[in-house]
Amino acid sequence: MPCELGQLDFAPLPPAPARRTTRRLSVATWRQILARPDNEARYNMNVLRLRASDSWPWLGSLSSSGAGSLWVRAGDGGHMVSAHAYGYQLLHGVVEPEAGEWPVIRHTCDEAWCQNFAHWQLGGPADNLNDWLRRRWHTGSPLRDVRGAGGRATAVREAARAAIAAGASTAAIAAAVREAAFAGAPAPEEVLF
Description:
This protein has 6 helices and 4 strands, in the order H-H-E-E-H-E-E-H-H-H. The chain has helices at residues 27-35, 37-45, 83-92, 125-135, 148-165, 170-182, and strands at residues 69-74, 77-82, 104-107, 120-123. The relative contact order is 0.13.
């Protein structure tokens, strides 16, 4: 005798939501994005250019990993892209896959939010992982920040915005950014190898 639903039978579970994956934009879409002056203007208004050797904070939206996020338009609508991916391609042209692998834009300063083009290098995912493995234990490294990359980026952005709103000098803004960036360094007794 079949059981009524709710006695010993279980209702089937709904299907699991599809896992969100990063969608790569086509080369053609990137060309459309880079050709629009409004995208470039929106990018430039969110980059705080400090001294040439400094990391340049992103003042706009941030991803949970601390990278800048930029809403751009193309012929097929709008897209959210990484600010450094936009900036790199604005400077160097559209990045295309090599041997079936998409390159990544690596930050030599290890600051995911940095928009200083002098701090960017193109490489493969393995290069990016090796950078992290090699530098994650260095004293003072952004990769050791106790707030995580997202917390660090948010603190830097907010410090820069506050200094700008207060009418601070460029030197004072840079000092506020440095102070916010290094506020999350682990205490010496927390450094374990």
